[in-house]
Design goal:
CATH superfamily of the largest domain: P-loop containing nucleotide triphosphate hydrolases
Helix content: 55-70%
Largest sheet: 5 strands, parallel
Number of strands: 8
Shape: elongated
Number of helices: 21
Number of domains: 4
CATH topology of the largest domain: Rossmann fold
CATH class of the largest domain: Alpha Beta
Radius of gyration: 31 Å
Order of helices and strands: HHHHHHEHEHEHHEHEHHHHHEEHHHHEH
Distance between the termini: 95 Å
CATH architecture of the largest domain: 3-Layer(aba) Sandwich
Strand order of the largest sheet: 2-3-4-1-5
Strand content: 5-15%
């Protein structure tokens, strides 16, 4: 039928041309319409065949290659049983899961978990990002969603796999709450199509489809996406603990010449709050530093330098004046002296070398990961943050703008004391506390800690002078050197 219509159209144009009719405007119009339709087709035809190809052609990621996420891995394996053991699942009358949502901060390994899930279940794997579905042309996003599921089924057939896993990163871009985008309805149409495709997943489907989403803002997702029957399970992928960090460092240093295994234990203890991506970058930067020094092995000093680089960035080109460097030395020395006084063994390193936006830096290394704090512990944190400015005041008689971030951090800690019900106000809702009352309570806490810090530093001025003098000579010092000055 298509050929008949095309032949009739061409014949009609030839007849009109023979009788002398001007067909140029009609030809141009048809060409323009054809070009527009072709453009819309190519825009909507987003092929996902090449995405995720590395799972089959390159090294397959397994759960053993992911460290620090034992809880998330166990929960994910349990959710994958319906792909691994379909007969048992059917016998027990269990409804297979249609979607699994990985929730956690950036760099914690959500994409790696999805790829490992594909390897664990021997499934075809296709990956996409939420932003790839959003276009200015109406209907393109919905068509791409349909194409995504179609490509997943085709890829599973090509690989002779009975299941396929579709991974969508940054799901909050695609699945944000409907009604928030007033400019046009393309966002909502795309989400609606995703909901329809998920509803179309049936238990007896061959291949079986599992949708895995990843986001660090689950609160932005539409409730219809999170209800049972769609994303049935949420797996929390958090920051690794100390043992997890040790495992991640072991994975990323398998091909690197480490001086001793004890170095990794020390670095795992000193990197509280680091994600897996941070630790991978840390191991890489340490290897680069060792190469620059023509060292045959990577030792503790390289890792320590790499930690500062990952946290603060490369050394800055700007050169502060001699007076500024001296002030920074007393400032950072005050932080370190109070930290060591209220929490012995907590100072990991100290430097007055400018990095990023900081002129100096004191890095703490707590003996254990800590997630709960009492009021005395929070008050010690306030004292440490105030110590830099108070040290300047004791030595120079005034303060500088270098303490601005310290003051913000001290104020936030004071607010946390009030919000946690640890202040004299008792148990309160921070939103219902009058602004003047909240200010006065935080001001009282800060004033009390400022007085205590001033007294401690006044009693330890000789130590502060010794630390500042050593910093001006050496620029950086590690924990052993710092403690030797105090002893």
């Amino acid at each position: 039928m298509k050929e008949i219509y095309i032949g009739a159209g061409v014949g009609g144009f030839i007849f009109l041309a023979i009788i002398g009719f001007n067909i140029v405007p009609f030809a141009l119009l048809i060409l323009a319409m054809g070009g527009f339709l072709y453009f819309m087709k190519t825009q909507g035809q987003l092929s996902f065949n090449n995405l995720g190809k590395g799972v089959k052609s390159q090294h397959r990621i397994s759960f053993a290659d992911i460290g620090g996420q034992d809880s998330a891995i166990n929960e994910l394996k349990e959710a994958l049983d319906f792909l691994v053991k379909p007969e048992i699942i059917q016998h027990m009358g269990i409804r297979p899961l249609k979607g699994i949502l990985l929730v956690g901060p950036p760099g914690t390994g959500k994409t790696l978990l999805a790829r490992a899930a594909a390897s664990f279940t021997s499934s075809a794997f296709i990956a996409a990002s939420g932003s790839e579905f959003i276009e200015m042309y109406a209907g393109v996003g919905a068509k791409r969603v349909r194409q995504l599921f179609l490509d997943a089924r085709k890829k599973a057939a090509r690989e002779n796999s009975r299941s396929a896993i579709i991974f969508i990163d940054e799901l909050d871009v695609l699945g944000a709450k409907r009604g928030n985008h007033t400019s046009h309805m393309e966002y909502d149409q795309t989400l609606n199509q995703l909901l329809v495709e998920m509803d179309g997943i049936t238990p007896d489907e061959d291949p079986r489809i599992l949708l895995v989403g990843a986001t660090n803002r689950a609160d932005l997702l539409d409730p219809a996406l999170l209800r049972p029957g769609r994303f049935d399970r949420q797996v929390q992928v958090g920051l690794p603990d100390r043992e997890g960090r040790r495992r991640i460092l072991s994975i990323h240093t398998r091909n690197k010449p480490i001086s001793s295994e004890e170095v990794l234990d020390e670095i795992a203890r000193a990197t509280f709050g680091f994600s897996g991506a941070h630790l991978e970058s840390l191991a890489n930067e340490a290897a680069i530093l060792a190469m620059r020094e023509s060292s045959s092995t990577i030792d503790s000093a390289h890792f320590t330098e790499a930690i500062d680089k990952v946290l603060l960035g490369e050394k800055a080109d700007r050169q502060p004046t001699r007076q500024e460097i001296e002030r920074v030395a007393y400032h950072e020395g005050g932080h370190a002296l109070i930290s060591e006084t209220v929490d012995p063994g907590s100072v990991a390193s100290l430097t007055i070398i400018p990095r990023g936006g900081a002129l100096g830096f004191m890095r703490k290394s707590p003996p254990d990961d800590q997630y709960l704090f009492t009021r005395p512990q929070l008050e010690k944190q306030i004292m440490i943050t105030l110590a830099g400015a108070i040290s300047e005041e004791l030595v120079y008689g005034d303060r500088s703008t270098g303490a601005r971030n310290d003051f913000n951090q001290a104020w936030q800690t004071a607010r946390e004391i009030v919000q946690s019900g640890l202040s004299s106000l008792g148990v309160v809702s921070i939103d219902d506390v009058p602004a003047d009352m909240l200010y006065n309570e935080c001001r009282t806490i800060i004033d009390k800690m400022e007085t205590a810090t001033h007294q401690l530093l006044s009693e330890r001025l000789p130590y502060l002078e010794r630390i500042a003098t050593a910093l001006l000579e050496e620029e950086s010092m590690d924990q052993r050197r710092f403690q030797s000055l105090l002893n």
